[in-house]
C-alpha cells in the first residue's frame, strides 16, 4: 500500500498571510502610544501629563496585568480542543478578577503613595496626576485578559484577520475619546489619555468576544481531542514560567522609571520616555507578531526554512527603517511635528534614537527562538532569558544612578538595548533542543515518502 503523501512545506507567502494581520494589529497598538502622547502634548501641562503616564500609569498598569499578558501565546499554543479551552478560560476569569482587585488596591488606597513615592521615587508634580490616570485605567486588566485569551483561539483556527480588525475597533474608540477631550479643552491631558486607552481596550475585548463565538460553537467544539490532553498540572507547568517571564520583564519597566527619576534631567527624560517607547514599539511590532506565527507553523513539516527566511527579512527591514529615521531629518519631523515635543525634547529624543538601533531586530529574533520553545511546551528557558535581561538592564541602570553624570534617557535606552541583546542570545541557546526535535520530526516524516519513491 502506498504511503500517504507528505504534507507540503508552508511557503513564505503562506506565512506572510498569517503574519500580516497580527503585525498590523501590533502596529496599530504601537500607534496608540504616540497618538495618546501627541494629544496629551497638546493639552494643559503636557510635560507633567506625559511624565505621569510614562513614569507611573503605564508601568504600574503593565505590572498588574503581567500574569495574563502571556495568555495570547498560551491560548494559541494550547487551545486545540474544547476541554483545553475550558481549562484555560477558568484561569483567565479567576486571574482577571484577582488583578482587578489588585488594581483597586493600588489606585484607590494609600498603597499608591507607598509604591509611587517610596519605590518609584516619582517627582512630586506627577504623583497626583498619575493616581488619577491609574484610577481611570481600572478596566484594563480584565479586558486584556479576555481579549488576549480569545485572540489566541482565533489565531489557532486561522482567523488572524479578526485580530487586526479588533485593533481598528480599539483605535476608533480611543480616537473618539481623544477628539472629545480636545474639543472640550478643559480636562487634564492625563485624564483624556487614560480614558481613551480604557475605552479602547474595553471596546476591543467586546469585539473579540463577539467574533470568537462562531469559532467556539463550530471549529473548537468540533475539533478532535489533542494528542496530549491538557491537564491543570500541565497547564501550570507550561504557564507559570511564562507568568514569571512577563512579571520580571515588566518589573524592569517601573525600575527604569525609578532610575530615570534619579538621574540628571529626570523630568525631561520621563516626558520623552513614552514617546520614544511608542516609536520603537511601532518598529518592533513586525517582529513581535512572529511569535504566534512560529508557534502555529512549527506544527507543519518543513516549516523551519521558510520561517527562518521570513524572520531574517523582518530583521533587515525594521533595522533599516530605524537607521534611516535616526540618520535623517525624519526623526526631528516625527518628534517635533507628529508627537509635538518641544524643540529641546525633540533634540533629546533624536540623539537618543541611535541607542535603540538593535531593538527591532532583537524582537524578531526573540519571537523566532521563543516560538520554538513554546512549541516544545518546555518554557523555563524563556524565564531564564528574562532573568538575564533583567540583570543586565538593572545593572546598567544602577550604574547610571550611581555615577549621576549621564542623562537618564540615554542610560535607559542603552540598558534596555543591551538587555535585549543578551536575552536574544540566551533564547537562541535554549531553543536549540526544540529545533533539533522539529528537524528530527520532519526527517522521520520524510522517510516513508522516500521509501515509497
Observed structural traits:
single chain; 453 residues; mainly alpha; 18 helices; globular; disordered N terminus
Layout of SSEs?
Blueprint: H1 12-41, H2 46-64, H3 71-78, H4 82-108, H5 111-120, H6 127-136, H7 140-156, H8 160-184, H9 189-222, H10 232-261, H11 266-288, H12 290-297, H13 304-327, H14 330-338, H15 343-352, H16 359-376, H17 380-403, H18 408-452
Helix pairs in contact: 1-8, 1-9, 1-11, 2-6, 2-9, 2-10, 2-11, 3-4, 3-7, 3-12, 4-6, 4-7, 6-9, 7-8, 7-9, 8-9, 10-17, 10-18, 11-13, 11-15, 11-16, 12-16, 13-16, 14-15, 16-18, 17-18
Major pleated sheet = none
- Straight-line N-to-C gap: 12 Å
Q: Please, what is the average pLDDT?
A: 87
Number of helices: 18
Succession of helices and strands: HHHHHHHHHHHHHHHHHH
As a whole number of angstroms, the C-alpha radius of gyration is 22 Å
The proportion of strand residues reads under 5%
Write down how many β-strands occur, each being a DSSP E stretch of 2 or more residues. Answer: 0
Characterization of the model:
The chain has 453 residues and is an all-alpha fold. The chain has one domain. The chain has helices at residues 12-41, 46-64, 71-78, 82-108, 111-120, 127-136, 140-156, 160-184, 189-222, 232-261, 266-288, 290-297, 304-327, 330-338, 343-352, 359-376, 380-403, 408-452. Helix 3 packs parallel to helix 12 and helix 4 packs antiparallel against helix 7. The two termini are 12 Å apart.
